[in-house]
Every structure is written in C-alpha cells, then in structure tokens.
Amino acid sequence: MLKVGVIGAIGYVGAELIRILINHPKVKLEAISSTSYIGETISSIYKNFYGKVNLICTDMEEVIKKSDLVFAALPHGLSEEIAELTFKENKILIDLGADFRLSKEEDYKKWYGLNFLFKDLHKNSIYALPEFNRSKIKNYKIIANPGCYPTSIELGLMPALKNNFISVDNIICDSKSGATGAGRTLSLKSHYTEVNENLSAYAIGNHRHTPEIVECLSKISGKKVSITFTPHLLPINRGILSTIYCNLKKEICLEEIHKSYAEFYKNEPFINIMPLGETAQIKDVKYTNNCNISLHQDHNKNQLIIISVIDNMLKGAAGQAVQNMNILMDFEETDGLDFIAFSN
Amino acid sequence: MLKVGVIGAIGYVGAELIRILINHPKVKLEAISSTSYIGETISSIYKNFYGKVNLICTDMEEVIKKSDLVFAALPHGLSEEIAELTFKENKILIDLGADFRLSKEEDYKKWYGLNFLFKDLHKNSIYALPEFNRSKIKNYKIIANPGCYPTSIELGLMPALKNNFISVDNIICDSKSGATGAGRTLSLKSHYTEVNENLSAYAIGNHRHTPEIVECLSKISGKKVSITFTPHLLPINRGILSTIYCNLKKEICLEEIHKSYAEFYKNEPFINIMPLGETAQIKDVKYTNNCNISLHQDHNKNQLIIISVIDNMLKGAAGQAVQNMNILMDFEETDGLDFIAFSN
Amino acid sequence: MLKVGVIGAIGYVGAELIRILINHPKVKLEAISSTSYIGETISSIYKNFYGKVNLICTDMEEVIKKSDLVFAALPHGLSEEIAELTFKENKILIDLGADFRLSKEEDYKKWYGLNFLFKDLHKNSIYALPEFNRSKIKNYKIIANPGCYPTSIELGLMPALKNNFISVDNIICDSKSGATGAGRTLSLKSHYTEVNENLSAYAIGNHRHTPEIVECLSKISGKKVSITFTPHLLPINRGILSTIYCNLKKEICLEEIHKSYAEFYKNEPFINIMPLGETAQIKDVKYTNNCNISLHQDHNKNQLIIISVIDNMLKGAAGQAVQNMNILMDFEETDGLDFIAFSN
Amino acid sequence: MLKVGVIGAIGYVGAELIRILINHPKVKLEAISSTSYIGETISSIYKNFYGKVNLICTDMEEVIKKSDLVFAALPHGLSEEIAELTFKENKILIDLGADFRLSKEEDYKKWYGLNFLFKDLHKNSIYALPEFNRSKIKNYKIIANPGCYPTSIELGLMPALKNNFISVDNIICDSKSGATGAGRTLSLKSHYTEVNENLSAYAIGNHRHTPEIVECLSKISGKKVSITFTPHLLPINRGILSTIYCNLKKEICLEEIHKSYAEFYKNEPFINIMPLGETAQIKDVKYTNNCNISLHQDHNKNQLIIISVIDNMLKGAAGQAVQNMNILMDFEETDGLDFIAFSN
C-alpha cells in the first residue's frame, strides 16, 4: 500500500481527496493536515465522515514525513515550499494549487502577483493532464494538477486543435460552474441567499485560469492560441459546463469531426464523446471523474460548438489528482475512481 | 378603465398577465379563457390567487367580446385566427406567441413549419420592442410581443449596433434561462429532479428564436446580422442572462462604449446600464420589468462582452406586453410595472 | 406624508423595509442608517435598488432626527437605547428585534442573557400582532414587532385557543424556514453548499422564539400554554411553514373547526383560511404579507393538524412592521402591502 | 456470481438498483425489464450510464428466467403475480413495492383498495428491515422491502420502543422528503417550478405508509402503537428527515437514552447515533445507505425528539434491497453499499 497524505485537508478539495483515498484499493491515507484545525478529527468538521474516517489533523511536516506521496490542496503561493521539502526527500507532490501550472514566471507574476520562489523546482514539475501528456507524467516528482475550468476546456478542444480543424485566433469559452468551485471560505458571494435563484458572471476578461488555458492549448496545437473566457456561478453544488465556440477552418461536416473525436479518445477511460444529437449535461458526470463532450454545428455558418462537462471537484480537482497518482504509480488508472453518475 | 382580457390564462405567462392586470391602475380585467379549464376559477388552479382573484375561465369568443384589448398567451399557430377576429372588430390584440414575430412567411415556414393563414393581417402587425420602435407601435392593432431570449439579446446589442461599434458577422449569444421559460406543460425536461442540480444546453444551432433575433438585429443595424445562439436551462424559476460576444470594429475604449450605452438608454424607465466594473446578474431584475446591462472587454483583444439580464416572465413576456399596452393607450409606460427587485 | 427612517438598513430585513417604504403611498423614507456602511449608497450594496433608490447610509441619530416614525432592524440588545431616544422625543419606534417582545425580564435574562436596560420603557411598549390586539396598538409608541416563527404559529393557533378547542398542554410546532431567516451575516451554516440539497433542524428545545410563542399563546388562551418548538432550515430563500399538532379537547368535526377559523379571520385582509381539502404551501404566500392556514385531522384520533405559512421577511418581519405602522397612523391596513403572490 | 435481474428498471428506484448492482462484487446483473421501453438500451434513457451500462430492456418473463434473484421496483398491485412466478421456480424476489408489506389483507384493502391475489404467498413473505429482524430474513423467498418514510421512522424509534422509554399512544412523525420520492412519473406536483422554492405537506392524515409504520412499530414494541404521520415535499433531490416527537414514560435523562441507542445499534454497519449535541442532517447521509440518528430533549417537559435521516433512494429503497440480498446470500452486508457521503 502506498502511503499518502493530504495537506489542506479541510477545504472542499481536501475533503474530497480524503473521501477517494479512504476507498482507494492501493493506498493508505496516513496523515492529513490543516493549519486551522490541528488536533481536530476530520469527522468533527465534516459530519459525513462520522463513523467512517477518524483521522486527526496534524501539521504539514508530519504529513510529509509519513507519506511517500503528498497531495496539497492549498491557495496559490503556498505549494512551492512544500515542493522544496518533498523534492529534497525524493517524495512525490501532487499540487492542486496554481503554483506550478504556469511555466513562465512572467505569467505567474502577471496573473497571480508573485515570483517563483524556487525557480529550479519548476523545471522538475509537469502540468499533468493525463489525456494530453500521460506518458511524460511518470518522469516527474512535482505534479501540477490542472485547474477545473481549464480541464473542461482543454479536453473539449484537444482533438479539434490536434486535427487542425479550427482557427486558433478566436475561441470563445463560456463556462458555468457550481458553487463548490468557490470553496469553503465564507464570502457574501457564496452566501446561500445570494447564489440561490441567481446566475452571475465574474472575473470577465481577467480570470486567473486564462493563462493556464492559453498555455496548454498552445502546447496542444503548436500555435499561439487566443481565447476569451467567461466564468459564471451556477446555483448548484457540483459541475462545470463549458460551451465553446470555434471557427472551422474549412467546411467539414460534423460527422467527420465527431468521428475523429471518438477515435482520439477511444481508449480514454474517463472521456465520453456523446452520440451526435445528444447534448452533454452536468448531471451525467456529477460525482464522477468523467468528462462528457458533445459536438454541434451552428445552423448557418462554419462554426463548431463544443459542450464539455465535468465535476469540478473530481475531474476538475481531486479525481484528476488521484488519476495522476494512479499513472505515476502504475496503478490501474481507474483505481478508486470508477464512479457511475447517479440517475437523479 | 380599459377593458382587457387574457386568452390562454392558465399557462405561466397568462397567470403572470393576470397578476399584473389585476393591480394595474387603468385597466379592468374583464375575462380570461382557457380551453382546458372552462368553468373553473383561476384561484382553484393557481392558489396564489386565493382570496385575491376569482375570475372564471371562459372561452376565447367571450374574452374578445368583453374586451377592448386582448392579450393572447398561446403556443404558436393559434393567434392568427384570434387576430382575424379582433382586427375585424377594431380591437387590439397583443400576441405573446410567435405568429406575428417574423415578417417573412418563408422564415415562419422554415422555423415553425407553418404558413401564414391570413397574410394581410401581417402587414397590419408590428414587432413591438418599445426601446427600439416605441413611436410606431401606436399605429397598429396587432402587436407581436417579442420572445424572451430575443428581448435580452436585442436590448443588449442595440446601442452597439446603432453606433456601428461592432462587426455584424459573428455575434455569439450564449443565453441561460430559468425553468418558467419552458412553461407549465409537463415534460421530463421540466421534471424537478431532472432540472435541479443540473445545467443543460438545448436546441443548439436551431432554436426558433434565432430568426427573430436576426431579423430584429438586422433592422436595428441596417445590415444582415449573423448570430450564433445557444440557450441553456438553469435550475432557477425566473430570469435570463445572455452573455454576448462581439468583435469591435476598431479600437475603442470601454469607457466610450459605456457612455454611449448610458446615453442611448438614458430616458428608458426599464433599462439600467450598470456602472463599469459592475456585472449584471439575474437576481437584480427578477420579478421586475427591468433589463440590466453590463459591459466588459476581453483582456487581450478587441472584443466586447455584454451581459444582459431580464426576468423572462416580465420584460421577456407579460411585463413587456403590458408595457406595450401602456404605450398603445397613452398610459404612463410604467403603470402597473414599477416593481423593485427583492434584495433576496 | 409621514417621515420614516430605517435603522439597520443593510440587513435583509432592513433592505426589505426600504423596498416597501419606497413604494408606500403615504410615507416618505427620509433616512437610513448602518453602522458599517456610513456614507455608502444603498444601491451600491444592494444592486436591486440600482436606478430606484439612492439613499445614503447615515447614523442612527440622524435617522431619528429626520423621522417621525423609526423602524429598527437590529440584533437583540441594541433597541432599548434607541427606544429611550425616540420615546423622549415622542416619536414612534417599531422594533423588529427581540428587546421588547418578552414582558418579563426574567424570561429575557434566561433566553437572551441580558437584563432590561430601561425597565420603564417596557411598560410603554406592546407586542403587536394585529390580528390579536389591533385595537390596543395605537396607544403605544414602542412597538415590538413579533418574530417570524411566532407569527406563523400564533396566527395558526389563535382561533383554536380562543374557541377552547384544544388542550394547551402539549402543542407540537414543527417549523421550517427559508435561509433569509438567518440573515446576511456570513456563517458556514448559511454557506451555499451547506444549505443547498440539505435539510437540518437546529436549536432543538432551546430556540429563543420559544418564550415569545408561549407568552403570546398564553395571553390568547388565558392559560399557561406549553409547546414544543423545532425549527428547520430549508434550502429556499423565503418562507416559513409551521406544521402544528394539537390534541382536540373533545370530539369536534373538522368542518366546525374550519367554520370557526373562517369566521374568526373573516375581516382580516392578510389571512386566508384555505378550503377544506386544500393544503397551505409556501409558494402561495412568498413575497406577500399573507398568512395562509389549512386545517387537517389525523385519521385515527382526536388530533388537529394546522399548517400555517407566511413569508418570513414580510408577514414575519418587514411587512408586519409596515402593517403595524399603518394601524398606528390610521392608514389603510393594506397600504403598501397589497402584494399578490407570483404563480411561479 | 449471483445472477440477478431488475423488473421496473426505468423508474428512479430501478435505475438506482442498476447502478449499485453493476458495481457489486458478487453479482452479475443479467437482465432488466420495463413494459414501456422494451428493446431500448438503458443508457439511451439514463445518459449517466453512457459508456458504463449497455443493458437492453426486455420483459419480465425474461428477467425471471435469467435470474436467481429478482428485484421488482413497480407500483403496488403488480408484484404478487411476479412472486407467484418466482416462488414456483424457487427463486428469490425482493419486492420494493407495497404488495407484501402489510400482513393483514384488511389493511391492504383499506389503504390500497386491493385484495390479496395470492393469499398463500403472503405467509411465505417477510417485511425485511435488517436492523429489526435480520436473522429471520434468510428463511424467506419473498422479501418485502420497507418503504422510505417507514424506514426512517422505524429505525429512529426502535431502541426507544424496545427499551420501553416512551408512550406508544401519541407519537408524532413529521417527515420531509426529497423529490425523487415522487418518482419519474410526470405530474404538476413534480414540475420543477412548482417544487422549487416551495415546501408543501401532502396526504396529511392518510398517507399509505401509515399502516406499514404502525404494524412494524407495534411488532417492535409488542403493543399497539398509535402515530400521526405528516409527509412534506422538499425542494431537493434526495433524502428524508423525520422529526419524531414522543412522550417519555418517566423522567429519564438524555444521556441514558443516548447510551442505550448507541448500544442497541453498535454492530450495525449503516446506523450512526450522532454524539449528543450534534443534529443529524440530510447531507450527511445523501448518496449512502446510512441512517443517522440524533437525540434531543425538549426544554420544559418529558419529551424525546428524535431526528432520523436517510437517503430515500438508498436506505429507503434500492440500498436496503441490496442489503437484504446480501443478508439472504450470506455476502458481507456492506458489499456494494459502502458509500461515504460527499462533503458537499
């Protein structure tokens, strides 16, 4: 059994990691930490764990000491120091924050307002989107787990970019996310009566996931990709739906595009290309590690519309992190992640 | 007091009309009709009217007979015959269906599968969006009340098109609507457990509001406008939020655009241009006849992002119909419609 | 026009008061205050007021100075000092907090942990539930507006107690409230993802509304009433539904009880006794000042089940406060309050 | 691997059974049936199964032929004929309908309006609530799976009745259920806009689960138990919360009651007695087979308040059915059911 630990256990992503890891057949969750809850039992904070998980929050150092692989689910700016520790001890860090997602320090500086603390560590890290660069992931000990919105958009666009179907100049990504994406931190924006019976866009034109999406899509396509990305807050707990609009380079029928998508992802355990005529929706992937994608063409012009849905807490965070662990450790990629969505 | 009636009283739009008309200071609601509920009291069907409204459903002919102005809130294909009757008797019809929204029969045929029954009536009808063509409305006796999605999109784009700020070639309209938009008719798509905790797109590339939007925007701009329109179903009761992406023709700063929007709508009682930096959201217009609009620019290119929100049942249907009546009758335009949104 | 002011304008109840008062035909809202938002415009905090209300938050003293009647919507413990000021100046205070609801200091001490600051003021105050003691309200200058849960329960039980139909020993009140009841203050208990898709009971056996309910019911019946009261938090914004179980004293048929309820409330503008066979539900009173009550009998024993529903922000708070003002000022009791519920 | 089948596969309970059985380590789901969907793939109806389950709906006879154990999830009145077939062939039927839940034909007649079709079969059936009569279940081939509301109430009351703590005369059960309980059949009562932002009670004093609860509680206590049961419809998908009020027979402290509950259920894998001071809530058991129970005492009298929560689709239906199968087949009782609730 692999010894694993979770740093940042009391955030929503940390709690979701615990839920998955406790049931994972090949790992043992040795320790969890949280700065604010040291000494407290996880089940006293999250009652859903009552009678199931009795781990006590300790500190970061203890988690690293007891684990061979560490998950960090922290706000950005806190993971480089952890990576410095794990790397020194030849342990693996899967970071669910943003610290290692951008390869260029200038981008990190521009969008997050911070410099790289340990520049060398970044050369030893990889942005790990399994469906894009699975084979390379095993060579690294510092894993940058993709963001939630980026995962939905990158998976939705990858086959179109790889097949050179679409223009890279003007891709519109209109994304909608459930409220767990905003985390457990109190804020008027996450107050029940403000979110309920409402829809609101936010961070229009300047959301921090933008450079991550641009960098990954540019790597995929080999060209500089330009996107417009608008996130919206939905009155639901879980799920992201991205509606992606792209200009087809030449007339190409939807059937052909669909066929190449199905072919591209045919061996992927977590990706479903919906039959033509079907529309991917959030409820079909909620509480799973799946990404469902449906393809559509506008009635009067050469435009491809892609709908891509994931659960923001699973394929968009904790699930993909465990998927990356499975790849790193040569486990079955679906170990601990083979969830079927609920019918209702 | 103007004598008015409602045909199609038991649908959600009909019921909303009744609520407004009962409280309107200058009209008397004389009769309501519903094919399926003849003889039944409105308050036995909608308990919210209990103790307030005791009208009994009668038939269409009775409504026309008793009213000087008739509202029809019916599925498409049923209003032309009503218009034939009201026009003959020199009464006014405000039609909340689609029968008179498209000026070209070929479009109606293509998108709704029907021919015009009474071609001449169409020449005597007007698509009545007050903020666009208020002054002409009074010349007509057959009023086509705009659709809900079209209202949100047309109001959002009008100043940009009138001022020639944006390209008309490639406007993306990503719209999200609450479930009242699907009406009271039973369907698995409107079943509680299917809508709740979900988001789904539908009718992608072929929604029937598309030709209506195209025709109106083309009239506004004087050029053939091309749009992509994708509606989504939100797990809320009321409200539409349209996120509209357009390409700016030349570099123009957001401040200037904002100023011209504010100027354009400065005398409009129901339109609010939000201050720069604010984002229009559904809860601020829910249960009102308002349309709030906010303007945004993308970080790295000449693209304008417009957020336009309305209550689909009010400015998107019953409210706008009453606004049109107010205009036709020279009432105060806000009579019966001066709702302030609830803070929560 | 009566000059009125609101102290505690930024809480949910304060904002609801503002919405009603702005549209009230016989008052002018002169000033509002909020300790934390002095100098800020209400519409910059509540965007729903944008373009409608531009009042700027000032301090308490200013509000009292400018107003002849003051509403205070504050946490308990802050209103006595305000009353001291208004009473001295012969102005009216309608207090939506708990400071003047309990007549016995020992109860206030026991349930709220505080002593009465100005004992004499309490003799000059009245617990004002119009349907119970309308005629006495006009004699007072300090008005204690009832709590939300108490209003739903007291109105539901009043005719049964007055008619001596039920035992006063063992009344079970199982109440369910929407999340606005918890206010705008941030708390994990009001965090969207904690409330959504959940139901939870709280303060079981020790909620502070208990002594208020007991005192009022005891006054109504003339005997010491004993209740069990359990509140629950619903995943909705507005509304309270109380399911009340009482033991009938003797065999009495439901028809007779129903008749006496209808008779009891026949002149009340805000109370609807639903026809036998109907069940009162939250959506039929939401966004109104109404209280709908339905009556039911258990299948196998002499037990009466009463369902009583109100909007917690209106009849349960701001609406009832304005109703009390209308009574005090000899306005029409429905002035500013004649809302019809939305059909959906 | 045990060969199993599901009759009534397209209802919500049927779909939930399929989800569990597909992942169950010791069974093979051989066939499913649905009268209305013969020939259709389950994943074409429930898109959440897309890529995971490809079973095709057949007819009832085929399901029985292919299976050693059959689950029936049908409206009442249809299972006796199935039982007649399975019993003849010495196969096991786990019936999730009401046909075998009541032991007395007169009760079935009174509450469901039907006679027993095959009286002898009823002697060979058992009402199977594992925590009550686990040891007897294995002797039967016709298993009546308890209803959802009854499960929550019976588990909540069992230790108090067994220990003779409470009076059996006047137990009040105020229950609240999510909308999946009303199933997939279209109805205005399950229409999204009618359920959302609402709470309503229904079937007050005459819900069909009443005689089932009374019979089971009477068996548990050895005395005729009398209850009042009021169900309410919550605007959530999953979960039941029952608030149960009972009169303590003598003064007994809550600590002692809590201790005896904990002792009573100490070996039960699916029951959690929450620590004193905690309150059981729906989100902590949603999507699990657990029943969480919390215990409370009223402030001023000898009354016990029990909160009991389950997921109506799992412990209240499909999960308990699989638990019963596990018991019948000597599998681990938690096989296929060891779900941890999501933190959000």
From TrEMBL, chains A, B, C, D:
A single BP term in Gene Ontology: L-arginine biosynthetic process
Location relative to the cell: Cytoplasm
Pfam families: Semialdhyde_dh, Semialdhyde_dhC_1
Enzyme type, top EC level: oxidoreductase
Major subcellular location class: cytoplasm
Molecular function as annotated in GO: N-acetyl-gamma-glutamyl-phosphate reductase activity; NAD binding; NADP+ binding
Positions in coiled-coil regions: none
Residue ranges annotated for the Semialdehyde dehydrogenase NAD-binding domain, each copy included: 3-140
GO CC terms of this entry: cytoplasm
Pathways involved: Amino-acid biosynthesis; L-arginine biosynthesis; N(2)-acetyl-L-ornithine from L-glutamate: step 3/4
Reactions performed catalytically: N-acetyl-L-glutamate 5-semialdehyde + phosphate + NADP(+) = N-acetyl-L-glutamyl 5-phosphate + NADPH + H(+)
Superkingdom of origin: Bacteria
Keywords of the record: Amino-acid biosynthesis, Arginine biosynthesis, Cytoplasm, NADP, Oxidoreductase
Residue numbers annotated as active site: 148
E.C. numbers: 1.2.1.38
Function, in words: Catalyzes the NADPH-dependent reduction of N-acetyl-5-glutamyl phosphate to yield N-acetyl-L-glutamate 5-semialdehyde.
Family, as annotated: Belongs to the NAGSA dehydrogenase family. Type 1 subfamily.
The name this protein goes by in its record: N-acetyl-gamma-glutamyl-phosphate reductase
Organism expressing this protein natively: Clostridium isatidis
Gene that encodes it: argC
